[in-house]
Amino acid sequence: MMKKKLSIIGMPMDLGQMRRGVDMGPSAIRYAGINERLKPFFDEIHDLGDIAIGRPEVIVDQESKLRNLDLVAEKNALLAEKVDEAVQAGWFPLVLGGDHSIAIGTIAGVAKHYKNLGVIWYDAHGDLNTAETSPSGNIHGMPLAVSLGIGHSKLTEIGGYTPKIKPENVVIIGARSLDEGERILIKEKGIKVYTMHEIDRMGMAKVMEETIAYLKERTDGVHLSLDLDGLDPSECPGVGTPVIGGISFRESHLAMEMLEESKIITSAEFVEVNPILDEKNKTASIAVGLMASLFGEKLL
Ligand SMILES: NC(=[NH2+])NCCC[C@H](N)C(=O)O
Ligand SMILES: [Mn+2]
Ligand SMILES: [Mn+2]
Fold first, then answer.
1. Is 127 annotated as a binding residue?
2. Exposure class string for 73-104: b at 16+ Cβ within 10 A, else e
3. Total domain count for the chain?
4. Confidence (pLDDT) at 54
5. Predicted TM-score of the model (pTM)
6. What's residue 232's pLDDT?
7. In a domain, 262, yes or no
8. Which among 66, 4, 73, 6 is positioned nearest to 35, based on CA atoms?
9. Catalytic residues
10. Which residues form a coiled coil (predicted)?
11. What is the ipTM of this complex?
12. What's the mean pLDDT in 237-250?
């Protein structure tokens, strides 16, 4: 049997949006006991520490209006390298955010190892904006588009190849706040989306059954990109862009348990935990609980 090895990488990035505090996400998640909780499910766990981000001044790219474009690109290139090395060496990469712009780096590091990487985008948002469609200029609203090869070339070219993933290999779960340009892109590219409407109507069990079956038949690895704002803000208040009417804690655990049973997940990231906006580290604790379910923790 191959050893089960987990590589934890902290990405204290807050340059993809405007609310301070999300750079403390990795610390909050570690403080919530990630190591202890995941230990039973791995032969070895290496916490590689954090990628150095620094505290630079905000610079808006004059041409594209993207906030912190150069730094977000530079730091994501570093993350991509780290993730690439982990996968290469046979470690499961688990990245702790940081705002969702870090998915650009994670996916750049992972996708080169697969012919058809699948992505589950568990999020209230589509994160499918470009400089042209973004209402905010915040890069954390763009990483899924960037990974599909759509967006500023400084972002899409990270890792030296583009696109990273194909639209038919993506499943978005939990969407309830989509901008106009994102809706157009979803339809144009035929991206599979389970909005809150489908989750209410079909139930999470059916949504996950379909998602797993869909990805199993077309992908050779699946990355889970879980934005804690996919969950309802009453349960996960520690996020920068909360949207009412989200996925429940229980539904989310079921989703993670079903993913564990399916054995399809080959990399993951948990993003947008902002301890300054949180209540007693609740959101970080929920993130750790979801990771535990994803890797095999059972109630009985
Ligand atoms: N990763 C996130 N929380 N993204 C929120 C994006 C919000 C909005 N759609 C924007 O582009 O600014
Ligand atoms: Mn997101
Ligand atoms: Mn979101």
1. yes
2. bebbbbbbbbbbebbeeebbbbbbbbbbbbbb
3. 1
4. 85
5. 0.98
6. 99
7. yes
8. 6
9. 100, 123, 125, 127, 140, 227, 229, 272
10. none
11. 0.96
12. 98
Where residue 122 sits, what CATH number does that domain have?
Answer: 3.40.800.10
% of the chain exceeding 70 in pLDDT:
100
Supply the mean pLDDT for the chain.
Answer: 97
Range of the domain at 164: 5-295
Secondary structure string (H, E, C) spanning 58-78: CCECCCCCCECHHHHHHHHHH
Cβ 140 under 6 angstroms from ligand 1: yes
Dist. CA 210–CA 192, nearest whole Å: 11
Residue 300, in any domain of the structure: no
Percent of the residues in the chain that have a pLDDT greater than 90, as a whole number: 95
pLDDT at residue 3, rounded to an integer: 87
11 in any annotated domain? yes
Q: How far is the CA of 144 from the centre of ligand 3 (A)?
A: 11
CA–centroid distance, 190 to ligand 3, in Å, is 20
- The answer to whether the CB of 221 falls within 8 A of the CB of 169 is no
Query: Is the minimum distance from the CB of 229 to ligand 1 under 6 angstroms?
Result: yes
Q: Of the ranges 47-56, 151-160, 209-218, which one carries the lowest mean pLDDT score?
A: 47-56
